[in-house]
Design brief:
Length: about 200
């Protein structure tokens, strides 16, 4: 499983981690399903780029690479970002001084297992970002196909701004969770006085 071996400071964070992992898996499956389902309908020339108004301004000839390139890029991006999450866990155990977290000296004073608790929200956030980008790619594939076959004239750009807003809007939440996890773990290990 994606979060095997990760300790969470709160049970609800584990549920968020599982939910986000399920959403990522479903969004990747849906992206590939829609790309495969549209393939027979795609004309010999289809849009691959849109301006801010959503009007196609870049075109490609129908090819496996041309049409399935975006889903493949999404899968590669997911592997890369999830790989970064794995590397963060590995670095936390082997080279914790390379991890950038709030109150780093306190982080470094924690046990190796305690440090893993602190980076768990970061790893969940990376999975969340990967899920949102996958959903954005799904929107682009679906919208490009609809424009290509003439069902729509333009591709709306509002989902791009929604996804950016969701990423930036949840970043403070995950930063707060990381800070709270640091305080709670430091108190458990006797490095800070537990809050009353």
């Amino acid at each position: 499983m994606l979060f095997r071996g990760i300790s969470f400071h709160a049970p609800w964070l584990r549920w968020i981690a599982v939910l986000v992992a399920v959403l990522l898996t479903l969004s990747q499956a849906l992206l590939w399903w829609r790309a495969v389902a549209w393939w027979p309908e795609i004309p010999q020339r289809f849009p691959i780029h849109f301006n801010l108004a959503g009007t196609p301004d870049g075109w490609a000839n129908k090819s496996i690479l041309g049409w399935f390139g975006l889903p493949a890029l999404s899968l590669a991006m997911a592997a890369f970002l999830l790989g970064i999450g794995w590397c963060i866990g590995w670095m936390t155990r082997t080279s914790p001084m390379l991890i950038n977290v709030p109150r780093k000296q306190l982080f470094l004073a924690l046990s190796p297992q305690g440090r893993l608790v602190i980076v768990a929200p970061v790893r969940v956030f990376l999975t969340w970002v990967t899920t949102l980008v996958t959903l954005l790619f799904l929107w682009i594939v679906e919208g490009s196909a609809r424009v290509a076959v003439g069902l729509d004239a333009t591709l709306s750009s509002w989902p791009v701004f929604v996804m950016i807003g969701l990423i930036l809007g949840t970043l403070p939440f995950f930063l707060l969770v990381t800070t709270l996890a640091l305080d709670a773990q430091a108190a458990r290990e006797g490095l800070l006085r537990a809050p009353d």
